[in-house]
Amino acid sequence: MKRLLRNSGPMMRFCSLSSQNVLKIEDVLKQVRIFSNSDIIKYSKLTHDSNPLHFDLEHAKNTGFSDLPVPGILVASLFPRIIASHFPGAVYVKQTLEFKSPVYCGEEITGEVQASNIRQVKEKYMAKFTTKCFKDGGILVIDGEATTILPTLAMNKLEGC
């Protein structure tokens, strides 16, 4: 609960490592975010996920965690947000996830998507992205892959890079 007082809201920062305005293979798009207890409470209310792992410190510690972990799916929500912020109207088709390490409130998490395959389908584009989240100087917390349908390869420019 002490983190609830310290982390009252999410901190987010977007960045695109592409030098051009058009998505190409190997381009990397990132978002940095710090999750708070308030985020977990809102997530729980919205999803009806009341797993005691995220609310009962004793339960979390008995399960092997050092603190209350942020729900993995909440952390993974960085991926569609990154893609949709650069490509409004993008449609998520598929996402695989492998949870590698826990995330705790107050940790700075970097969500990263990297274009690995792009092909045109009629007037739209099917794009595959490797998806990763890191904490604390490069510790991999989530690894996966996403497939999306993009209306265009032109990227919205974002502030904060």
Automatic annotation (TrEMBL):
Domain MaoC-like: 35-125
Pfam family, one: MaoC_dehydratas
Entry GO MF terms: hydro-lyase activity
InterPro entries linked to this entry: HotDog_dom_sf (IPR029069), MaoC-like_dom (IPR002539), UPF0336/Enoyl-CoA_hydratase (IPR050965)
Record SUPFAM superfamilies: Thioesterase/thiol ester dehydrase-isomerase
Residues spanning the membrane: none
Taxonomy, superkingdom: Eukaryota
Protein name per UniProt: Thioesterase superfamily protein
Source organism of the structure: Abeliophyllum distichum
